[in-house]
Amino acid sequence: MKSVEKYDLIYSVVMSIPGGTVATYGQVAAIAGLPGRARQVGHALRCLPDDSGVPWHRVVNAKGEISRRGSPGSEFEQRALLEEEGIVFNKRNRLPLEQFQWER
DNA sequence: GCAGTGACTAGTA
DNA sequence: ATACTAGCCACTG
After folding, report:
1. Residue A100, CB, less than 7 Å from strand B?
2. pTM of the predicted model, to two decimals?
3. Is residue A2 predicted with pLDDT exceeding 60?
4. Which segments of chain A are extended strands (E)?
């Protein structure tokens, strides 16, 4: 269960993201104490259920885009969720990483 | 314990 | 600006 502890930290960081703000895997990883382990963050969110209370949709990659593991369509739903948070999307379904000034 | 894979990033073409 | 490649690190089989 040690692995769960590490994931818990990541979840905590993600849940610490205020509404209307998004963060990249690298950003979350760095804050979670895993600099350069952005992939690990992805794995953590990957095992994360949709009803875990973690706004995984606020975590995007360096391109400002999110993809749910080969399941297109979830992206569309995600966009709606983020828009509801007050986040504005760019033309290409990409997020303006300028809102990363969250800093835990 | 080794090999393969991956919700990534940065650099290069 | 977009597309591809290489690198890095952790987890799964």
Report:
1. no
2. 0.88
3. no
4. 23-24, 59-60
